[in-house]
Structure formats: C-alpha cells, structure tokens
Amino acid sequence: MTINETLIEKYFSKQLSEVELVEFKNQYKTDQDFKAEVDFLKNIQYVSEAEDDAQFKSQLGSYESEFKDNQKSKSPRRLKPMIAVAALLLITLGITFLLNKDLNTEQLFNTYFEPSKNVSAPIVRSESNDELLNNAFIAYSAAEYNEAIPLFENAFENTKNSELLFYEGNALLALDKTEDAIAVFKKHLFYTDALRHRTHWYLALAYIKMEELDKANQELKIYIDSGESFKKKEAQLLLKKLE
Amino acid sequence: MENQHIDALKCDDNSRTKELYGRYRDEFFAFSRKYNIDKTDCADIYQEAFIAIRKHAISGKLHSVNSSFKTYLFGIGKHLIYNKLKDYATKSSYNPKLHNADSEYDVIQVEDEKELTEEQRLLQHHFNRLGKSCQQMLTLSFYRGLTNEEIAKQYGYESEAVVRSHKSRCLKTLKDLIKTSPR
Hints:
The complex is a heterodimer of chains A (243) and B (183).
Chain A: H1 5-12, H2 18-30, H3 32-74, H4 79-99, H5 101-112, H6 131-141, H7 145-159, H8 163-174, H9 178-188, H10 196-209, H11 213-225, H12 232-242
Chain B: H1 3-10, H2 14-34, H3 39-59, H4 69-89, H5 118-127, H6 132-143, H7 148-155, H8 160-180
Helix pairs in contact in B: 1-3, 2-3, 3-4, 6-8, 7-8
C-alpha cells in the first residue's frame, strides 16, 4: 500500500535509471494507488507550469510598460502618436482586464506582493524581556506565518507597539487570509508609527486580491501621495494598470 | 548558448531577465515589422517568444543548442510571427512573399499552449488557494523538476528532510481542499 516516493521524485526530476524506469512503468501499470498518485502529480505539473507562465508573463508586461514609458519620455516629437498607441493599448488592456478580471487580479497580486521584511526589530536570540517579540520575528522571518500571527497578537497586547500590526497583516496576507489582513491593516491605520504609510500599499494589494479595485485605487493614491519611496515605482505602475 | 542567460531565466533572476528583455526588444520589434506585424502585436509576440525560450531553459533543452541566445529567441519569434500572419490571413488576403522577409534566422518550432482539462482547472483553483510557499514548493518539485536536495540548497531549507516534509504537508493540504470542496 505504501507508495514508492523516491521513484516518483526521480521521475519528476528526470533522474530515473533504465532499471528504475522499467520499475516505474511496471508499477504505473499494475498498482492503482501508484498510478493515481502519479496522475495527480502530473496534473500539478501542468497547473504549476500554467501558473508559472502566467506570473512570468505579467512580469514581462511590467518590463514592457517601463520600456514604453522610457521611450515616450525620450521622444517628445512623437508624443502624439505614442499617446494614441498607449491609449489604444490601455483600452485593449482595460477590456482584457474586465474580461479576465479574476485571473488578472490574482496575477497582479502575485506579481507585486511580497511580505515586508522585518525593518523594526533586530532579531536577538536571547532570554530577555522581549522574548515573545523575538520569537514572533524569528517565525516571521522564517516565513512560518501561522506561528508568527498569534505571537504578534500577544506581543501587541503586551506592548501596544502598533508596528506589530503591520507585520501581523503581512503574515495574514501571505497566508491568503485577506479579509483578516484588511481588518488588521485598518486597525494599524489608527496609529501614527513609522510603518503607517506602507500599510496603504499592502491594503491596496489586499483589495486587489478581493477584486475591490476602487478601494485599491484609493489606497494606492494615498500611498503615492505619502512621499514614501518604498515600492513607490511599483505603486505608480500598479495604479496605471488599474486606471 | 550563453549559460549565464539560461541561468537567468531558469533561476528567476529578475534584473538579468529584464536586461535581456530590453537588450533585444527594439531590434525584435523592427524585425516583426518587416513582416507587416501590427505594432500592437509586436510586444505580445516578443513576450510569447520570451516565455517559450524560458520554458526551453527550464526543461534543459537549451544546453544542447549551439546557436546564440539571440538567434534562438528570434527563431522562436519567427515561428510566432508566421502563426500571426496565418491569423491575419483569415481576416484579409494572405501575402506569401512575407514568408521570405528575412533569411537570417531559422524558424524554431514551439509547442502551442496546452489548454488545461476541466479536472486541471479545478485543481488550479485549489492550487491558488494554497499559501505562496506551498505553491512555490510544488512548482519547484513538479514543474521545475528539482530534487528535494536541490530545493534545500537553492532555497535555504535546513535539509532535504525539511523539504520532504514541507512538500508532503502541501500535498496533503491540497488534497484536503479538493476533498472538502463542494462540486
């Protein structure tokens, strides 16, 4: 009943020897469970390839916008025709965007979102008073968000350090708990700490994920106006895509 | 072919990929226009060619290619341009002379994009509900074909065993999502 995982791993990494390949084919033919597992993993292969391509395509799209923008600013004499082409492209993109709203919002989110780095507290592995906070940041930096979230919650209760809400929101967003993330980010906006402005950027991404594009738009404008340089170019590019 | 370009595409090196994209962009657009490709289609074709060459980099196919990165990229582009011309021909009369517009680059055939089956689309829906690290883990294992050891080394996991257990948790989560979803 146990499935030979090594054989399967070697199959997907194309490292089966001739003998192992015969064994693989034989098991695939005779063992129903083995066949079902391999078929399932092959489907994951197709799906992850499609997702990977879509992500890369959106990355290329952002390069293209940048190159086009640069060329536009370099050639003022050709401004008018360029505006016409850009307008046409925007309309086409807008229509495509409306038609594929689900796919594109997901793609946009995946392209632009990466959990914020820890810019607040150095991680010191010690038995000091801040152990809870330390552990929260250690888990967060290791991308163990499930572990980090309750630690941030507790640390915030104890210290009332509002920046912790920013990281909790990021962790929730990374776990696809978008609505919870929005609630925590909104709570963070009641405070005026150093990370307050950046929360608008992450709120915009969360709203994109929820397909609430008007709100995303608004958050991006607030963020760009705040004068923060972190992800500013990305915010401007994203705003252009939404408008 | 230049190994550093293959690596840039394989390893998701954003800045080097962007540099490559910019390096041949204008020349490719001019090349496309020799075939009377609409300006608005040039960028699409160029991006499709980039996606295809990256697929070939990931599958290991490029290591046995003798031509330069540029020649190969333009060869794929030429294949896609011919497809686009066939597309145009369904809307207006076809000019076979356009097929001879350039002889510098040999056509490189690429597979058409495969449509996902209904079962795969459903799986895709659940795949997208996984956390980012699980999506990455499954992509590296099954699409990129990396071994657990390679994933551990390249992506900073403590050991091969940690990768193995993380992957197995991700697969279990995915299977649970499928099981519990109403069909």
